[in-house]
Design a protein that fits this description.
The structure holds two protein chains of two kinds. Chain A is α+β, with helices and mostly antiparallel strands. Chain A has twelve helices and nine strands. In chain A, the strands form two sheets. In chain A, strands 1-4-5-9-8-7-6 form a seven-stranded mixed β-sheet, sandwiched between helices. A two-stranded antiparallel ribbon of chain A has the order 2-3. The longest helix of chain A is centred in the N-terminal third of the chain and has 36 residues. In chain B, helix 4 packs antiparallel against helix 11, helix 5 crosses helix 6 and helix 20 runs antiparallel to helix 21. In chain B, a hairpin with a 5-residue loop joins strand 32 and strand 33. Chain B is elongated and about 130 Å long. Classes of the chains: A alpha+beta, B alpha+beta. Chains A and B meet through strand 1, strand 4, helix 11 and helix 12 of A and helix 13, strand 27, helix 15 and strand 30 of B.
Chain lengths: 343, 824
C-alpha cells in the first residue's frame, strides 16, 4: 500500500505538470482528489492494516492529498496567468465601430405628445380619447359656438357626406367626458384635429392638439396658471415663464391666450418670437357656465378651466424645426435624428 | 392580551357574532391578532367523582379508577394515565360516544383492563394547552354537571394587540367601554357594594411613600381571617381563557381584578412583613428606591441585584416587591397566609420600563404600568378586590382604606372646534353628535367657550366666547384616558367612533383613462422602434385610386369628404398601407435602401362604431446596417417572422393558431396570420411587386423584397384586456434533451412535424427546437435534412434512461408513419 501511494503521487506530479488548459485541471482534480479517485479509495482500505499502523498511514494519505492539492493549485494559477498574458498581448483596434442592434425612432410629434401626456399624468390628469369624426353638436353647439360663426364654414371645417364633420379641436372630448362622468373631472385629450387650411410652414389640414380640462369645486384661474407653468417647466425647463392675457372664445369665460417666454432667446426678442419675447401656446379659460349647464353640471357648485395646445407647434419650438410640412414628409433622415428621444 | 367573549359579555350587552365583534374591535383600532373558537363540548362530558384509583399491575403510570357519574348501572371503570389522578377527586369524564376533535371515546382495553371513558385534561377539552394532568374540579362540584356549564362553553377568545397609547384598554371594562361608545351599546359596570362588616380587630401598618415622583399614589388595605384555597371554578376558567394559570383564591382575585379593571394589584402576606423600627406598632410598607446592591428574591425564583434607581416596595427592612413589576417570594401569599396587605398603586411608567428592561423581568403588571395607568383608578380597583376577597376568601376587612396620594393627577379640560373636525377628517360632524360620542367615551361636556390650544385644569378658567376668537366645545377628559391631551386627540376619537369608512374620497379613482389601451400601444410602438423601425405620420385620408390599386373597393365601407382639398384626399382612410407605400417610395428616391417604417393610427371604416386603432409597417432591404465584422443579410421571412414572434412574447399573447393568410396585395403562400380566439390579430406577408409598381416602387430593379406587417391593434387591445400572467412553480426535476437528425420530404412542414413530436408525450415533451436545416450534396432531391432537439421533463420524478429511450423510439415511429421521415 505504501508503494502504491508513492507511485500515485509520482504519477500525479507528472500528469499535473502536463496540464495545459483549465479543463485539464478539472480532469486532474477529479482523477486524483475526486470521490472515485484512487487516493480516496485508500481511506477505505485503511482497515486492511493492523490497527496500530492505521493512524500513521492515514497521516501519509493526508499528506499526499495536501501535496497534490498544492500542485494542482499552482498549475491552475500558471495556466490562468498565461491566458491573461495572452489577452493583454492581443492587438486590438478599439477605435473600430462596435456592433449594435439598429433601432429606429418615434415620430417627433409622437415624442412630444407622449411627453405632454406624462407631464399631465404626473399632475393627476387622466388621458381621455374621443372620436375624430364628430357631429355638429359636440364640435360647435355644445361648445357655445353661435350658429353663424365663421368656423362652421366649409372653408374652415371638413364635412363628410354622411352629415358628420372632422373635429376642429379636441374640446369635443371634454363635452363627451362631462356628459358621461360627474366632477371631479381632470383630463387631457390628445389627438388629431382637422381644419381646412392649405399646408404651409405653420399650417396643416391635419394636426394634433392636446386639451386639458379640470372641473371640480373651487377650481379657479389660479389653478389654470399653476398647470400652465408646470407644463412649461416640465417641457422647456425651469427658466421658462408663462403668462395669460385676455382673449375671446365662445366656450370659455373669462378667456385667455397662453404664452411662454421665448425658448430661443429667453425673452430677449428674436426671429422665432418675432421680437416679442413671448411665444403663443394656445387658448385657455374658465369653462363657460353655459357649457357646464349644457352637460348638466351646476356652474353654481362646480367650476373648471380648459386649455388647448398645438402639439406640432410645441415640437417645432422644442426641436427648432422651421416648417411644419417637414413633419409630414416622413423622411428617414429627419426621423433618424429622433432616435435619442424614442425609447 | 386575550379576552374571552363570554367574560366580555358581563360588561357589554350585545348579540354580536364572532365576526361582528372582530370587525367592531378592528374598526375601534384594536387589532385582532388571532381568534380561538372554543366549541360546545359533547353532552357526554360531565363532572364525575373518582371513587377509587389503583395502579395497574405491570404499568408504571396507568391507574384503574371506579368513577361515579350518576350512571344507573353504577360505577364506571375508567383507566387513566395521569399522575394527578387519585381517589376522591372530582374530574371531567368523557363517556363512551363522546367525540373530541379526531378522537372518539370508545370502550377500550389497556393492559387487559377495560375502560369505559376518559378523564380529561384542559387540552383535551380545548380550554388551554395544559396537558400535565387531568382537570381537578372543586370538591363541591355536583356529579353529572355538563362540561359546557362548568367551563362556560362555547366561547371565543380574541387575542388583541393594544396600541401603546391606549392604557385604558388593558382590561375587559376598557374594551367594553370602547365598544359601547363605538356601537352605542349599553355598558354594564360591576356594582361595588359598600363594606359593612369589619374584622373585630384592626391591624396596624406603617405606610409611607418616599418617592412621590415615581409613585404618585399608594392605596392599601389590610385583611385578616383569610382562608387560602382554590378559587371557584368559574374564576379559574376565566383566568385560563385569558391565558393565566389559577394559583389560589387571593392571587387569582388580584389577577381577575387586574384583567377586569386593567389595573394591577398585589397582595403581600402581612405576617411576613417586618417592622421598620423595633418600637413600631406594626410592620411597614415603604415605597422607596432600592439601596445599592440590595438583593431581591423574586416570585419567579430568581435573585436580582438592584440598582439605586429601581423603585421597590419594602417592608421595614427589605424589598418585598420590585414596584409594579413583581413581588418577592419572601412576602408572597402561601397556603398558610391568614392576613394580607392589598396594594393598589400607581407608578411612573418610565421607571417601571427601565427596571423591567434592565432586569429582564416582564409581567402582566409591568406590561400595564409601562403604558401609564392613571392614579385615579386605584380606589375602584381596590374596592372591587376587597369585595371579592370577602366573598371568595372569607377575608375580613382589618383596616380603613389607606390612601397616600402625594402627587394628585389633575383633571384636564380640552377645547374642540367642530369646524376643525371637517378640516382634518374631510366631512362635517354636528355638535350634537360630537357631544354624544365624547360622552360615551366618558368625557363630560362643560360649556362653550373660546378656543385655546392648551388644556386647562380648572373649568372656571374656560375663556368666554368673544367675536375675535373661534368658539369651541369644552370637555372634561376622563382621567383614565392619559392619551387625550390635545384637540387633535379628541378629533381622532370622533373619526374613529364614527368609522373611518365614513370618510369620503375626494377624488374618485381613475375611471376615464383606458390605461390598458395606452400600455398596449406603447408596447407595440416601442417594439417597432427597438427593431429598427421609424414611425411615420400621414394624413388621415386615402386616395380612392390607391385603394383600387390595392384591390379594395373605395365605395364600400368608407366615409367620404364633401370638401376635400384634393381628390386624392377624399376618403377617410381605411388602410395605412397607401401612406406607407408613398413613404417608402419617397425614401427610396432619396437613396435610402434599407427601410423599416411603421404608422400607428386610427382608421375610419364606416361600419365601425369606434375609430379602430391600427398599426401597419413596411420593411425592405437589409436586416441591419453593414458592419466590418458581422455581415448583414437581406430581409427574409424568418427575420420578419422573428419580429412578430418577439411581439407575441412581449404581449404574452395566447395564440391559438398560426396559418396562411391571403390579401390582394400580398404574394400567395408568403403570408401568415396569428389567430387569437379565431381572430387574425397579427399579419405578415410579402408585398406583391406588381402592386408596388403601381405605387412607383420598382422592386425588381432594386432587387429588394418589401415585407408588410399589419396589426389589428383594436382587437389586440381587447383580446389582451384583463389577461393576467401567472407564475408557474419551477420544475423540481432536471430536464433531459435528446437530438434527432433525419430526412423529411419537402412537402412536410415544420409546424406539423413539431406538433407530431409533442403529441407523442404531451405531458413530458415540453419543447421542440429546430437546430438545423440542410439541403445539399448528401440529401436527395425533394428532401431536406432536419436536426431537432426536444426537451423532456417530468413534473413528478426524474426520468429514467429506459423511459427516455422509449420516448425517443416513439417519436421516430410517429414521424416515420406521419411524415415519411428517414433516419440518417
Amino acid at each position: 500500500m505504501h508503494t502504491q501511494l508513492e507511485e500515485l503521487v509520482a504519477k500525479a506530479e507528472e500528469n499535473i505538470a502536463a496540464c495545459r488548459t483549465p479543463n485539464d485541471i478539472l480532469d486532474a482534480r477529479a482523477a486524483y482528489l475526486g470521490k472515485k479517485s484512487v487516493l480516496n479509495g485508500l481511506y477505505a482500505r485503511l482497515r486492511e492494516l493492523a490497527p496500530e499502523e492505521r493512524p500513521a498511514f492515514g497521516q501519509l494519505i493526508n499528506e499526499a492529498r495536501a501535496k497534490i492539492e498544492t500542485l494542482i493549485a499552482a498549475q491552475d494559477k500558471e495556466i490562468k496567468n498565461a491566458i491573461r498574458a495572452q489577452q493583454v498581448q492581443q492587438e486590438l483596434d478599439l477605435g473600430m465601430p462596435g456592433w449594435m442592434s439598429p433601432f429606429g425612432s418615434l415620430h417627433p410629434v409622437t415624442i412630444v405628445r407622449r411627453k405632454i401626456e406624462a407631464v399631465f399624468m404626473s399632475m393627476g390628469f387622466e388621458v381621455a380619447q374621443g372620436p375624430e369624426i364628430e357631429d355638429e353638436y359636440h364640435n360647435f353647439d355644445a361648445l357655445n359656438t353661435p350658429q353663424d360663426h365663421p368656423s362652421r364654414n366649409l372653408a374652415d371645417t371638413f364635412y363628410l357626406q354622411n352629415g358628420k364633420l372632422l373635429r376642429t379641436q379636441t374640446s369635443t372630448v371634454q363635452i363627451r367626458v362631462m356628459e358621461k362622468y360627474k366632477p371631479p373631472i381632470k383630463i387631457i385629450s390628445p389627438g388629431r384635429c382637422y381644419r381646412n387650411d392649405k399646408p404651409d410652414p405653420s399650417h396643416s389640414p391635419v394636426f394634433q392638439q392636446v386639451e386639458a380640462l379640470w372641473v371640480d369645486k373651487g377650481i379657479s384661474m389660479s389653478d389654470l396658471k399653476d398647470s400652465l407653468q408646470n407644463f412649461a417647466t416640465a417641457m422647456f425647463g425651469v427658466d421658462v415663464k408663462s403668462r395669460i392675457r385676455p382673449h375671446f372664445f365662445p366656450f370659455t369665460e373669462p378667456s385667455a391666450e397662453m404664452d411662454i417666454s421665448c425658448v430661443s432667446c429667453a425673452g430677449e426678442g428674436c426671429r422665432v418670437c418675432k421680437q416679442s419675447g413671448w411665444l403663443e401656446m394656445g387658448g385657455a379659460g374658465m369653462v363657460d357656465p353655459a357649457v357646464l349647464e349644457m352637460v348638466g353640471i351646476d356652474p353654481e357648485i362646480y367650476s373648471g378651466f380648459a386649455f388647448g395646445l398645438g402639439i406640432e407647434r410645441i415640437a417645432m419650438l422644442k426641436y427648432n424645426i422651421g416648417d411644419m410640412r417637414i413633419l409630414f414628409e416622413n423622411d428617414v433622415r429627419m426621423l433618424r435624428q429622433f432616435r435619442g428621444e424614442s425609447l | 392580551m386575550k379576552i374571552s367573549k363570554n367574560w366580555l359579555s358581563h360588561y357589554l350587552t350585545h348579540d354580536l357574532s364572532d365576526n361582528q365583534l372582530n370587525r367592531a374591535l378592528t374598526f375601534s383600532g384594536i387589532e385582532v391578532e388571532a381568534t380561538q373558537v372554543m366549541p360546545r363540548l359533547p353532552e357526554e362530558l360531565i363532572s364525575a367523582k373518582v371513587v377509587t384509583a389503583s395502579a395497574i399491575e405491570g404499568s408504571d403510570h396507568l391507574k384503574v379508577c371506579q368513577v361515579d357519574a350518576n350512571d344507573p348501572a353504577g360505577l364506571l371503570q375508567v383507566v387513566c394515565g395521569a399522575a394527578n389522578c387519585r381517589s376522591g377527586m372530582m374530574v371531567v369524564l368523557a363517556r363512551i360516544g363522546a367525540v373530541l376533535g379526531d378522537l372518539t371515546i370508545k370502550k377500550a382495553k389497556l393492559r387487559g383492563v377495560e375502560s369505559f371513558g376518559m378523564l380529561c385534561s384542559e387540552r383535551e377539552i380545548g380550554l388551554s394547552e395544559e396537558h400535565g394532568g387531568i382537570i381537578e374540579l372543586p370538591a363541591d362540584t355536583p356529579i353529572g354537571v355538563s362540561a359546557n356549564e362548568l367551563f362556560g362553553l362555547p366561547d371565543t377568545v380574541f387575542e388583541l394587540e393594544i396600541t401603546p397609547n391606549r392604557s385604558d384598554l388593558l382590561g375587559y371594562i376598557g374594551i367594553a367601554r370602547d365598544l359601547s361608545a363605538n356601537l352605542g351599546l349599553p355598558l354594564k359596570l360591576p356594582e361595588i357594594k359598600e363594606i359593612t362588616e369589619f374584622a373585630k380587630e384592626t391591624l396596624p401598618l406603617k405606610l409611607r411613600i418616599d418617592e412621590p415622583e415615581l409613585c404618585p399614589r399608594y392605596t392599601a388595605r389590610l385583611f385578616s381571617d383569610v382562608v387560602i384555597k382554590a378559587s371557584p371554578l368559574w374564576l379559574q376558567v376565566d383566568l385560563i381563557k385569558s391565558g393565566l394559570r389559577p394559583i389560589s383564591n387571593v392571587v387569582d382575585i388580584t389577577n381577575f381584578v387586574m384583567l377586569e379593571q386593567g389595573h394591577p394589584l398585589h397582595a403581600f402576606d402581612y405576617d411576613k412583613l417586618q417592622k421598620e423600627n423595633a418600637g413600631d406598632e406594626g410592620p411597614a410598607v415603604i415605597v422607596r428606591k432600592a439601596k445599592p446592591l440590595e438583593s431581591f428574591h423574586a416570585l419567579n425564583k430568581k435573585d436580582y441585584q438592584l440598582r439605586d434607581i429601581d423603585l421597590v416596595i419594602a417592608d421595614g427592612q427589605n424589598p418585598s416587591a420590585l414596584a409594579g413589576v413583581m413581588g418577592s417570594s419572601d412576602s408572597a401569599i402561601s397556603s398558610g397566609t391568614t392576613r394580607i396587605v392589598l396594594e393598589s398603586a400607581a407608578f411612573n411608567p418610565s421607571s417601571i420600563r427601565r427596571t423591567s428592561y434592565h432586569h429582564k423581568i416582564s409581567s402582566d403588571s409591568s406590561y400595564r404600568f409601562e403604558r401609564h395607568l392613571s392614579p385615579e383608578c386605584t380606589i375602584v380597583t381596590s374596592l372591587r378586590a376587597t369585595e371579592m376577597l370577602i366573598k371568595y376568601a372569607q377575608a375580613k376587612v382589618a383596616s380603613e382604606l389607606m390612601d397616600p396620594y402625594p402627587l394628585v393627577d389633575r383633571v384636564k379640560y380640552l377645547a374642540l372646534r367642530p369646524a376643525n373636525f371637517e378640516r382634518l377628517i374631510g366631512y362635517p360632524m354636528d355638535t350634537q353628535q360630537i357631544k354624544s360620542y365624547l360622552t360615551r367615551l366618558g368625557c363630560k361636556f362643560i360649556k362653550e367657550g373660546a378656543w385655546q390650544k392648551d388644556a386647562l385644569e380648572d373649568a372656571a378658567q374656560i375663556p368666554a366666547v368673544t367675536a375675535d376668537k373661534p368658539a369651541a366645545l369644552w370637555f372634561k377628559v376622563p382621567q383614565n384616558r392619559v392619551d387625550l391631551v390635545r384637540e387633535a386627540d379628541l378629533i381622532e376619537e370622533l373619526a374613529r367612533l364614527d368609522g373611518y369608512d365614513k370618510i369620503p374620497m375626494k377624488t374618485p379613482p381613475s375611471r376615464i383613462m383606458d390605461h390598458h389601451a395606452n400600455r398596449i400601444q406603447e408596447i407595440v410602438s416601442r417594439h417597432f422602434v427597438s427593431q429598427g423601425f421609424f414611425e411615420v405620420l400621414n394624413y388621415s385620408f386615402n386616395d380612392p385610386a390607391s385603394l383600387q390599386d390595392l384591390g379594395m373597393d373605395p365605395e364600400i365601407n368608407t366615409q367620404k369628404l364633401i370638401n376635400p382639398q384634393s381628390s386624392n384626399q377624399s376618403i377617410m382612410r381605411v388602410s395605412l398601407l397607401p401612406g406607407l407605400l408613398e413613404n417608402i417610395r419617397y425614401n427610396l428616391n432619396h437613396y435610402e435602401r434599407d427601410l423599416k417604417l411603421f404608422e400607428l393610427a386610427r382608421i375610419y371604416p364606416e361600419d365601425h362604431e369606434t375609430e379602430p386603432l391600427r398599426c401597419t409597417a413596411l420593411l425592405t432591404g437589409n436586416k441591419g446596417e453593414t458592419h466590418w465584422k458581422y455581415k448583414t443579410n437581406a430581409l427574409d421571412f424568418s427575420i420578419v417572422k422573428g419580429i412578430m414572434e418577439s411581439l407575441v412574447e412581449l404581449l404574452d399573447l395566447q395564440v391559438d393558431k398560426v396559418a396562411e393568410y391571403r390579401a390582394p396585395w400580398l404574394m400567395q403562400a408568403n403570408s401568415l396570420a396569428w389567430y387569437v380566439k379565431d381572430e387574425p390579430v397579427l399579419l405578415m406577408g410579402l408585398m406583391d411587386a406588381e402592386v408596388c409598381e403601381k405605387f412607383g416602387i420598382d422592386l425588381g430593379t432594386l432587387d429588394q423584397q418589401l415585407w408588410m406587417i399589419d396589426i389589428d391593434l383594436h382587437r389586440l387591445i381587447e383580446l389582451t384586456r384583463n389577461v393576467e400572467l401567472t407564475y408557474r412553480d419551477l420544475p423540481r426535476f432536471p430536464a433531459v434533451y435528446r437530438d434527432l437528425s433525419f430526412l423529411v420530404p419537402e412537402s412536410e412542414k415544420w409546424l406539423a412535424i413539431s406538433e407530431y413530436v409533442k403529441s407523442v408525450e404531451p405531458e413530458l415533451i415540453s419543447g421542440v427546437q429546430l437546430l438545423d436545416q440542410y439541403r445539399g450534396k448528401q440529401v436527395p432531391q425533394g428532401f431536406r435534412s432536419l436536426h431537432i432537439r426536444f426537451k423532456l421533463q417530468d413534473e413528478e420524478k426524474t426520468l429514467t434512461e429506459e423511459r427516455i429511450e422509449q420516448i425517443v423510439a416513439s417519436v421516430i415511429e410517429v414521424l416515420t408513419k406521419q411524415c415519411n421521415i428517414q433516419m440518417r
